[in-house]
Write a structure and sequence with these properties.
Elements (H helix, E strand, L loop, with lengths): L4 H14 L9 H21 L4 H17 L12 H15 L9 H10 L4 H5 L7 H17 L3 H15 L8 H5 L3 H17 L10 H22 L3 H11 L4 H14 L7 H16 L3 H7 L5 H14 L3 H14 L1
Helix pairs in contact: 2-3, 2-7, 2-17, 3-5, 3-7, 4-5, 5-7, 8-10, 8-11, 8-14, 8-16, 10-11, 10-12, 10-13, 11-14, 12-13, 14-16
């Protein structure tokens, strides 16, 4: 089905970028990647549920459209419920005729956008109440956004820049009073704990997706362990700091964070990993864009060099990568 969602979103993002409204960590390359991943995940899930080829392709296209539009109102802050408001704005654009999609798609896409900030665990509590197609689209979008774009080497650059720089100038500015020049490092450590133990815990992924997501989480685990070692602290103390300073959304996920943290396997890392984690954050936090860092950064430490190459590989991934991923998903389902 021919739609113009991508074209409209690119135009909207271009205009918002000129006005300085959009986060560079949630710019067009992010929503593009989410759209591509969501399409493939939804396609495999639809096949798994027994939908025919025509229905499967339609579900995949709806998930792709939701991916393009999911961050349509994303700002440089974590305190704004951009999913809910983004869904309403998407509906407005559809009703005005700006975005052209089949009318029967609106409910499912709007619903997916409004729910994409959920963790998979939270979504699981309402999944069975939704029509099967809508549930697949929402779940695929969450998995794409939280699994691939918020895990692995890709999230190291996004988190270092978004949390270590953009949010330090907005809703995390108060951390500077607590931690001084190390504030970006503490902020990234806290957000990593928030994601790994609360909002994006590995145990909430469906079994068929875990084998693909697990290696991506292991990259984050190593990075976090290195960062904590560099800071001379541990996860328990970081969680205590998060509570003390009222880190955004900590109260909502506190119980889950503490529970998952207590069950984690403690990871020992080298000094090189620790120094690499700090180096990566400092580099991304001081540049005007992630692209500038990737272009100019010459890592000093061994693991930092590896992470940078993996970041580049993900960014440069094309059709071959997506075909390989679809094959993996289908084999695991």
């Amino acid at each position: 089905m021919e739609t113009n969602t991508e074209h409209v979103i690119r135009k909207i993002f271009s205009e918002r970028r000129k006005r300085g409204e959009i986060s560079k960590a949630h710019d067009i390359d992010h929503v593009s990647a989410v759209a591509k991943h969501a399409k493939i995940i939804a396609k495999v899930m639809a096949e798994k549920e027994g939908f025919n080829k025509e229905q499967t392709n339609e579900i995949a296209e709806m998930a792709e459209n939701a991916g393009w539009a999911h961050d349509i109102l994303r700002l440089k802050t974590e305190r704004v419920p951009h999913g809910i408001y983004g869904a309403k704005y998407f509906e407005k654009l559809v009703k005005k005729g700006t975005i052209k999609i089949p009318k029967k798609w609106l409910r499912a896409i709007k619903g997916a956008i409004s729910r994409h900030e959920m963790s998979l665990g939270e979504f699981g509590k309402i999944e069975k109440k939704l029509p099967k197609k809508e549930a697949i689209i929402s779940k695929a979008l969450i998995a794409a956004d939280k699994g691939f774009e918020a895990s692995g080497p890709r999230v190291l650059e996004r988190r270092a820049f978004f949390v270590g720089r953009e949010r330090m100038e907005k809703d995390l500015e108060y951390l500077k009073h607590e931690y001084g020049e190390k504030a970006p490092l503490y902020a990234v450590a806290m957000e990593s704990v928030m994601r790994l133990r609360g909002r994006n815990a590995l145990n909430e992924y469906p079994e068929w997706l875990k084998p693909i997501i697990k290696p991506l989480h292991e990259t984050q685990e190593e990075f976090l362990a290195g960062l904590l070692k560099y800071l001379g602290t541990n996860e328990e103390k970081i969680i205590g700091e998060m509570k003390k300073i009222n880190f955004p959304r900590f109260e909502k996920y506190e119980r889950k964070i503490k529970n998952n943290s207590s069950k984690r396997k403690k990871l020992e890392v080298s000094k090189d990993v620790a120094d690499s984690a700090a180096e990566l954050i400092k580099q991304f936090a001081k540049k005007k864009s992630p692209e500038e860092t990737i272009r100019e950064w010459k890592p000093k430490h061994k693991k930092a060099k590896q992470w940078l190459e993996e970041i580049k590989a993900y960014r440069n991934a094309g059709r071959t990568y997506m075909e390989k991923l679809e094959k993996q998903l289908r084999e695991n389902k």
